[in-house]
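Late entry, 4-O-methyl-beta-D-glucopyranuronic acid complex.
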Amino acid sequence: DDGSQLWLNYDLIKDAKQRESYAPFTKFIAVASDNQTLKIAAEELQTGLQGLLGKKIATVKTATASGGIILNVNKNAPSSTNISNEGYEIYTEKGNIIISSKTEAGVLYGTFELLRAIQTGRSLAKLSITSSPKVKIRMLNHWDNANGTVERGYAGSSMWKWNELPHRVDPRYVMYARANASIGINATSINNVNASSRFLTAEYLEKIKAVADVLRPYGIKVFISVNFRSPRTLGGLKTSDPLDPEVRKWWNDKTKEIHQYIPDFGGYLVKANSEGEPGPQDYGRTHADGANMLAEAMRPFSGIVIWRAFVYNADPNGDRFKEGYAQFKPLDGAFDPKVIVQVKNGPIDFMPREPFHPMFGAFPKTTLGMEFQITQEYLGQSTHLTYLAPMFKECLDTDTYAKGQGSTVAKVIDGSLYNASNSLMAGVANTGSDDNWCGHPFNQSNWYAFGRLAWDHTLSSEQIASEWIRMTLTQTKPTEQKISDMMLKSHPIYVSYTYPLGTSHMMGESHHYGPEPWLAKSARPDWTSVYYHRADSIGLGFDRTGKVSNALQLYSPEVQKKWGNPDQCPLDYLLWFHHVPWTKKLSTGRSLWDELCVRYYDGVVQVGNLQKTWESLKADIDPEIFENVKGRLKIQEKEALWWRDACVLYFGEHSKMPLPKPLTPPQRTLNEVKKLVEIYHLR
Ligand SMILES: CO[C@H]1[C@H](O)[C@@H](O)[C@H](O)O[C@@H]1C(=O)O
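Prediction complete; structure with ligand written out below:
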């Protein structure tokens, strides 16, 4: 098993009794219409049950006996059932299992839920499931380039073969569609937000159309990331000013043209005036001017405009933490209803642990979408085992107190806090052309977890891990439990040997691989490490209280209270908000310096424990996957040591304090670690 079938490998259920228990419900599949989506659902059931039960199952038009699975689209289902268009019900009636929804896509989602029930060993005897997605647009953002590379991709080159399309349509697109549909993902933006105008040419629209045609029956809409300067680069206009009538006409025409290829086009995703990308500010206009121009072009159609809030200027005296908020806050209420503003989970940039972005809860008149990063740019890329569901949930479950207690980030995102009519959760994809799609075999679990949480953010990290392990790795309970334990501990372990106590942004410059806490000079001050950790002879951390940047003031008073006092701030967030003296005693009873060292050292020890646990599971795991993970855990251990030694040695030069007992000295000198990291900068 090379992992190419992801969590849909449908391996035979080993326990014969269990297989038999499903026999009374799997005698036939009834599907009345020949709608393509329903056909796909029926075929998925056939493939799945063939694999899981080793049983060939026929499809019929109408059920004449009991003991089958009936796929049922009920467009007029009473609204009292409280199920949204994409939601489904699964129940038993007259000895049949009914999967029912108002839409074909809903039936497909229900079908995957039934298969998941069997894959994870649940009983079908008294099924009664109703499920509706909590978020409307559940989307992958690909940072894939036209030349086949992937920005921050760690699983090979792009999965989109632009040089082959539209003539050759890679069969992997179908696998991709199945995988996404199985977790409820219903949208995908196919190209990098650092966007090439090429994607708006007729040549590329034909290619994108071919992809959209594959994804459509799986309920997935295609979006395109656009370059704001396209009216100039493609249209030959003198400007891309969003208030210029010719520019507006260009976008209107382009949007119409796109719809000739893709009638159900999802819409535009835009990174503007961020990290050198063009945008409305180039012409003295606002983000709202830019977004609303595109929304107007989209007016005749169902599509939308997703405008990113990831913006920051290079102000050495400012605080990047406050930038997105500062630029967007005056525009709350100014955006067209077709616009969703997509905000990264934290205010800086996908750091391993960030406080939630202060925009969440502060924009009652704007629809805010969530942007998570599934690809592990700062989280071990393809060599560290890091399960991200707990990190996603930590953000979603945090209370913004925007409308009193219980105003969680999740409620901002699912639209319930401000009664938003649309909602969005996006994840930067980690897919590539690697056989197993995601590089590290465990990285697949982050794609899976993202989709499951976008559908239902109340699912627990434990449940999602358990599902994924059973569907992907093993059905043996004790093994499952051990792997689940590894996964649930993995994010805290990673944070421990990289960014403990609320430190951030100390990675190697530009490639973002490995530690570089000493980085003090870069093209921009806020691309260095010293800007963030602010280590000096007194202490460590960025003071964001009223004394210095006062970024804390962007949060509601309850949140300020929770994080604003260094004696009460949870240690995991401490150095995000406070410059703490090295000698200050923390709640653990240790000084800041001692606590920092203990965490760096413990992280490395824990990676050793992950290795030991994995080794003990050898007999139960597919040999190829076993060796693959084993090798990567070795790399993880080596790199955890780099991080530990780099940070402890570097910060030690500031604190001038000895390592607490019983920690043994680092394996290298600071210069030796620096040399290791410098290799990655050699040309
Ligand atoms: C697409 O650019 C990325 C950039 O590679 C990445 O290092 C940074 O984290 O975020 C940017 C963004 O989100 O726009």
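The chain has three domains: 6-131, 137-472, 495-542+579-681. Will revisit in the morning.
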